[in-house]
Write a structure and sequence with these properties.
Length: 256
Amino acid sequence: MAAMVAAPTAETTAITMGRAKKKAINKQPLVVLHRITIPSTSLPTPDNSIRVEEASNAEIRGNLVPPEPPSQDVIDFMETETVSVDGDASDEASIASGPVSFPVKRKREKRGRPLTTHEYVGLAEAKRKFLRLEMEELEVRTVQELMDSGASLKKTRAIMALPSVEELAAGMAEMTPDELRKKIASVMMRVEHVASNSSNLVGPFKNDLRIAARNVNAAALELVKRSAATGKDSWWMRENARLRGRGLPLKKAWKQ
């Protein structure tokens, strides 16, 4: 085994990063190279890792000479050592050995939407058309359910706050048949006005309200005609009984 060591004197040539420079600045690290010759008989067959290391060392040295014959393997390596030039331990430095690895830049994928085929042409328009038809079908079904005579009304808070039919009938007990007919006509006129001017009602609702109002008017008129013709209206009977009740005390007082 043979070793060459360069002493750190003023005339020593320093080898830094593979370049030979004369020592001009103090406190520079010195790299010591060792060359070791090992016979091939004392070592096993070199594997791929040793060959890769030899190739990398050859690239660093710039050696283009092919390796020596297989009689012996020459392993050159650069050993890292810290050498103090001026003897000051605080100014020691080290240089790492081995090949330098650089990050490999990969091709970045382009962003954006994938390529579309013919099956996606007009898909958005078809979805909008389908949703519109579905909404129209739901609206027609709702109108049919509401116009069904057997459908029960939902008891909401607003409906619960309305006056009952009995309370309204008690307020109309003193009216004559003609006054009742006028009352019904005014209410039905109000219903037709709402059905004609409301923008929240669809066409079937408006038509249904108009027909209902006219049917009520026709029924009220027919009742008034029948009561006037027969003379058996219950209102006259109740009014007669009420007046008789009021006249009985006067009749008794007059007799006394």
